[in-house]
Every structure is written in structure tokens, then in C-alpha cells.
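Worked Example 4.2. Consider the chain below.
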Amino acid sequence: MKTKEYIAYSLIGLMKTKDFETITIKEITENAHVNRSTYYRNFKSKEDILKFQLRKITEEYINKFESVEEKTEKNHIYTILNTYNEHRVFFLTIQESRQLYIMQQVYLDYLQDNIPVISSKEELYKLYHNIGGIYNFIICWIENGMDENLEELTELYLNIISDKGQGQLYSSLIT
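Applying the procedure from the previous section yields the following C-alpha cells:
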């Protein structure tokens, strides 16, 4: 696990000063003090490295939420935002490198591996809808610099999902 972390930290460090597309495997391995075979034993691509780091952060957030006494939507969203805020340099770095899209795949992979069997199409679509909402909310927050107060942002999210007039917003966008 430490080797993977060294490789991830190497890539993230390089992303702060170089375009993602121009970073080479050689640069990553030299910076991480590992050889190429070690890199390829652990990862297939630079995107896989980012997925590894995002999975670690996702597991961190889930562990934190599991230790929260009250399992409310408010505590859930706050835990996500707070955990991501603790890793803000990483998120702002991948945003700057135009790699935020990888988050959505990590979310979906996590769901497929950890959510109990979905019993209906409606549940499946609802799950994807909810993940898309959280994902896009977080993307907006990251793209805006992650500067908002976490309590206020949590309340904003809760207000959005409880807004019964959302249909009016959608219809005004398409007319």
C-alpha cells in the first residue's frame, strides 16, 4: 500500500507544476523512487493512480460517517464535504488538470462493489440520480475554489434536495 501511496503523491506533486497529459511514467517513478515494473505492477495508467487516491478518500469519508452517531442526511453531506475539504489541495489540483470526471467513475465503481442488490429499475435510476446530484454539487464546489463555509454549504444542499419546486426550474430551462 505504501508503494501505491508514494506513486500517487508523486503524480499529484507533478500535477501541481505540469500538465497532466505531459507527465511521463518515468517522471512519476523517479519522483516516487520506484522502478517502472513497480509502477506497472500497481497501476495501468495515470488515471488509475487518481482513482486509487479518490477511492482512499472515499473510504476515509465512509469510515468517518460510520462513526457518526446520528446517520442523518445532514451529517452525511457534511462528512463528505469536510473530508473533501481536508484534501482540498488534491481536489483543486485534479480540477486544474481537468481530471475531475474520474470522480464519477469512482463513485459508480464504489456503488457497484458495496451497495446491496437493487431490487427494481426505479431504485437503480434513483440511485444514479442521487449520485449524479451529489457528484455535480461537489464538482461545482470544487470548481468555485472550495471556499464556502461547510455548514452553510451543507444547508444549501439540503435546501436544494428538499425543494419541491425543482420541476419549475427544469421546465423554465427548456422553454
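The chain has a mean pLDDT of 89. The first helix runs from residue 2 to 15. Compare this with Example 4.1 before moving on.
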